[in-house]
Structures
1.
Amino acid sequence: MTSMYLDLIRIRFLMMLAYRVNYYSGIVIYAVNIGAYFFFWHAIYGDQEAIRGFTLAQMTTYVAVTWMARAFYFNNLDREIANEVRDGSVAIQFIRPYNYLLVKLFQGFGEGLFRLLLFMTPGLVVVCLIFPIELPRDPAVWLLYAVMLVFSFIINAELNLLTGMGAFYIENVDGLLRMKRVFIDLFSGVLVPIALFPGWLAALSEWLPFQAIAYLPSAVFTGRSTGDEALAAIGLQAAWAVVLIIPIMLMWRAARKRLFVQGG
Amino acid sequence: MMFYLGLMWEYFKNYAKTRLTYRADFWIEVVSDLAFQAINLIVILIAFRHTPTLGGWTEAEVVFVFGYFMVPYGIFSCFFDLWNFSERYIVKGEMDRVLTRPAHNLFQILLENMYPPGLIGSFVGLVIMAVTARQMGMTFDWTDLVMLLVLTAGAVMVYFGLYTALTAIGFFTDAPTGILPLMFNLQSYGRYPVTIYNRTMRFVLTWLLPFAFVGVYPASYFLERSGAADLRMALLTPAVGLVFTAIGLVVWNIGVKRYRGAGS
């Protein structure tokens, strides 16, 4: 049983490895995006020492590490599910002796492993060479950050499962999935750290699961959250990871009853 | 000429017919396109809550440039965006069909990929420009209107030339190169004042991949802050557009000569 899911990780990892060349350009694209925000924040800071407790050095590190974390946790599970619902192949998945959502999750994990080793890690090295980034010196921070990254992946994957299942209800979800993506980029703190949001928006973000994907881990990595605050952040991530299972289960039960396969 | 205009109208009618069958999709697509721009605007608005100026530019000026950036981009994405070219026309060999017809091949391909909802972004851009222009107390007369048309035409030609040349790479290699996604990310540099970048980036954005000419340079023609140097850059826009359009067409025609079909 477990070995079946482990195999799914392995297969997806190998599949990604076969197309690894596509990801070299990905590293350049991420560096380009980091560069855009690097210059942008540089100009925003001007002569200011710190904004809302973020020094410029911290901000640079934040931008770089957040984008590289995105390189790791990002996946297209939502689109994969939507496509399988649309072309009807999800019907075959239903007959097979496994849990479809778990299959997707583990496939996503295989992809994440690939992205961690061949995208995020070399990307971070490249980015460190280009931009003035301060890596944490305390090994405990690295350890905390590693744990938090796993939760980032889980929460993001859960949200992807949820939105992907939207395809059971709406025939064409492409636009919605695209919208969700930019929405998450904003509310997870990839584009702007949540600490810089205006008061009401920051308050709203604190009650949403998205900050657990990017902002919380990066705040620990840049040394903004330390000690108990960091542990509380992990606790919050864990809580969201568990809580999100509930809507997924509910939606999954309803979706199975609703499924109709178009064409054949 | 009449022949081409007639073709354009027929293609448009065809497009409208296929899209009207799925009206809801159409609007979701429009909204999700705008959501992407809206999030970028929100980033600018949030950043300006922490600084009065960005590299010497006020909020209204930066947002004005942002609005201007959307205008040529919308026109480009409506008429000249060939995102899927390599996959559809080279790998699947649809280019064969196009080449057997009497109209110019590039013209046919552009029409087949026409995307009228893109223009809505241009209108939103104009609205943003109008709102910020009011804030700054800018006055417009008819020469400004003429210049807006000329500069926007220049900016669209920059897009057209650059992307046509890059799309034509598909004729030389059928492997995905990742260059187009890279360009799409890089072009967002053009909507911020170039003065915030370092020398290398400024040079690249002005002369090599002239994305500054699709945003900040032409937009600064209308701003009061602009000195003689800014005006000179703004007036260069049509020239740069012509040069890049020529390059794009030459590369394209060389590419088409190399096309050998996909077999089967």
Note: The interface with chain A takes residues 22, 24-25, 28-29, 31-32, 35-36, 39, 42-43, 46-51, 53-55, 175-179, 181-182, 185-186, 188-189, 192-193, 196-198, 201 of chain B (CB under 8 Å).
2.
Amino acid sequence: MPGNRIKLKFTLNEKDVTIECPPGRRLIDIIRLDFKLTGTKEGCGKGECGSCVILMNGNTVNSCIIPAFRLADANIVTIEGLARVKGIPDIRSLFAEIQPLQCGYCASGVQMVLAALLLQNPKPDEREIREALSGNICFCSAYSGLLKSALHVVKHSKKRRYAKRISG
Amino acid sequence: MWLSILKRGDMRRESQVKVFRPKSLSGLLRLYGKNPESLIFSGGTRIIPLLTKGKNRRINFPEKVIYLGNIGEMFRISRSQRFLDMGACLPISRILSIGRHIIPRVVYEALHSIGNPSIRNLATIGGNICSPTPFNDSLSALNVVDARLELRSQSGTRWIPAGQFIKFNPGEVLTRIRIPLEEWDYQVFRKAGGNQSPTTISFAGTARFAKGILESFHFSIGGVNVKVFRNRDLEAQFEGSKLPVSVREIEAMLSGLDENLGSASTLPNARYRKETALRLFRWFIDNVNQKSIEIL
């Protein structure tokens, strides 16, 4: 029996894309399997651990609990497209300067959350960073390192944004 | 509604799912009237983990799904002098962004306690009210401020108090939440236990003081029974008390609450739930007393 499939148009990392898939397919499967963007990781599959966080219309969401039919006309940004988003510093290189992670499985989710936080609030304080990261579970328990890196990103974000603008 | 779908086990392969995406409220009611077995889907943060099964973690939707994300009427917020009206499909983060100076603080805190920021971007207030969490986080806060829920179906509209909401009539959808905007001197919301714990208790309370007396006093407890607990007779016992409330009155109130909770609880771990509820109530009264001393 041929199944129902829906045709979806949305923006993925600032590129307009079209996909035809079953309406109940998960966004994380579309990102990882259909578009081969494997930077987004899958952890619990229930929206609890934050490994699969991406930006959907500028907000952080857990891609493992989003069915395909919600994607129509959405603007999706994954970790691969984060560097192209205006107004966000190069979080990945700033993270690398501190090297807070052990296995790095949670890194993409944490960086997406930080990016969304910086888009909404360019100078968040420690309490706001902790609140923003409350949905990200680090399986290695490297939380102090993550917080240290997040503070480092915030501290240097203004400077890096300026440098990025100058270099064009 | 969706719990019955889960129990029925009427799931389909992901390719056999039919998704309806109505663009208006009238379209939704017409569709739901014709397809009452459909799953009403909005945020999906509670239903999807329950429907995700198997090695490939596929979402096993039922045959028909009605997605509410395109219905503009269900995303509206309006504010008058007396009420704040919120569409049932508003994401919790969107409601929180209005700010705690507009939303009653007790409701704000209840909504803020739900999930984490990424979940709150997806989860909707209507979903939180309709999903059968045992501790009814937002419902206990909405109950304490006398919020009302608008339920609509093809046959008409009815408004019910938030605390009386248990289930829908066939073809009915929660469309709007109306919160009265009243001034309170003290408002508090507390959750004992985590979001995933089956024995979590939520407590919401409000108090208003005038000329050294407790003019108005409301409290509501979620998680002691299927329905949110609120007893207006008990509240009336306290209203008119001289501030700070005396130890004797508090003890009388606690024993009254103990009796009421004892006869009400049918959930597992009933004793734990009751004791936690009593402790939260005691804590609330102590804070009311302290606040009254600061203000008066």
Note: The interface with chain B takes residues 1, 3-6, 22-26, 42, 45-48, 50, 53, 56, 59-62, 64-67, 69-70, 72, 113, 131-132, 134-135 of chain A (CB under 8 Å).
